[in-house]
Design goal:
binds manganese (II) ion, globular, 353 residues, alpha/beta, single chain, binds 3-isopropylmalic acid, ten-stranded mixed sheet, 11 helices
Length: 353
């Protein structure tokens, strides 16, 4: 009996459904020959549902999603819904409630892709950011005092627990070891100013580093890291950082790997159910035009396979994407690919079979 993976699919808003369709096309193509099966169950969470029903996420959603082997997400964000409602109510809520405490974001420049950095090629840009995904400034701790008056106070606290920091750093060391590339883990922080939060991060990092003598441990301030992503991206192998810094530096990372059309990530609970998504948003202006680039969603599907233990299949998806970037697609930008969304998906699907 072939193994069957049950996947919960949340196509979401804007171009989410279009890119998810292409990802599933590729998943179906590769599962056929790889000796496993995939079964998909669709969930309609997103802006349309919220506008119709007033409900962002049903209360039993996380319990139901917990029953699946993985979640495949398109995009969340709707032009008719105030920013924050869907992002917080769906994306962040799922990350938190499913305790997906790692946000894994590979930054890799594939062949044939125009890199905005002068004199940098695929040999220089290949690193992974391990972003803490449940704490820090995202924890939602804080409040207003005297809101709307001239004495107003707004407080937003960064929550860093020993347990949360430690499990993230442990994951990063383990991942770096398994990746087996330059065996270098960089802690990205701000120890010169955030003297409480990053004191905890640094102490924990140095303690755990002792358990990994074969991994070079390294530290960089977050502001400096943004310089080095541009100047010397080849210095990095694996980077571990908190939620907010990770959010910021991975957008920069996405740009040096060719933009949001290609950047994918996984929200990972190593002991539970994980969720894979293209990093870019719902791009409502391209909705329904067959113009959006599905490669990021296809790469997210590849990460999902790898996470499910189908590492060979995951690798083949990435290799097929690389063939498309090297020889077919003109640009990664929506509407400038020289092909439609559907054609890109067809091509990757052809290469994996
Ligand atoms: C991301 C996004 C989200 C984040 C938003 C949409 C809440 O920017 O996945 O990086 O800040 O984490
Ligand atoms: Mn972001």
């Amino acid at each position: 009996m072939p193994k069957t993976y049950n996947i919960a699919v949340i196509p979401g808003d804007g171009t989410g459904p279009e890119v998810v369709t292409e990802g599933i096309k590729v998943l179906n193509a590769i599962s056929g020959k790889s000796g496993f099966k995939l079964s998909f169950k669709y969930f309609d969470f997103g802006g349309e549902r919220y506008l119709k029903t007033g409900e962002v996420l049903p209360d039993n959603a996380t319990d139901e999603l917990r029953q699946y082997d993985a979640i495949y997400l398109g995009a969340i964000g709707h032009p008719d819904v105030k920013p924050g409602i869907l992002e917080k109510g769906i994306l962040l809520r799922l990350r938190f409630e499913l305790d997906q405490y790692i946000n894994l974001r590979p930054v890799k420049l594939y062949p044939g892709i125009d890199c905005p950095l002068k004199d940098k090629g695929p040999e220089h840009i290949d690193f992974v950011v391990v972003r803490e995904n449940t704490e820090g400034l995202y924890a939602g701790s804080g409040g207003f005092l005297k809101k709307g008056t001239e004495d107003e106070v707004a407080i937003q606290e960064s929550i860093n627990t020993r347990k949360g920091v430690e499990r993230c750093i442990r994951y990063a060391f383990k991942y770096c070891k398994k990746r087996n590339k330059n065996k270098k883990l960089t802690l990205c922080g701000k120890t010169n100013v955030l003297t409480y939060a990053f004191d905890l991060w640094e102490r924990t990092f140095n303690e755990i580093a002792k358990e990994y003598p074969d991994i070079t441990s390294d530290y960089a301030h977050v502001d400096a890291i943004t310089m080095w992503f541009i100047k010397n991206p080849e210095w990095f192998d694996v980077i571990v950082t908190d939620n907010m810094f990770g959010d910021i530096i991975t957008d920069l990372g996405a740009m040096i790997q060719g933009g949001m059309g290609i950047a994918a990530g996984g929200n990972i609970n190593p002991e539970g159910v994980s969720m894979f998504e293209p990093i870019g948003g719902s791009a409502p202006k391209y909705k329904g035009k067959n113009m959006i680039n599905p490669l990021a969603a296809i790469c997210a599907a590849g990460l999902m396979l790898e996470h499910l233990g189908e590492e060979q299949a995951g690798k083949e998806v990435e290799e097929a994407v690389m063939k498309v970037t090297a020889s077919h697609i003109q640009s990664l930008a929506a509407g400038k690919m020289g092909m439609t969304t559907t054609e890109v998906g067809d091509l990757v699907a052809k290469y994996v079979t």
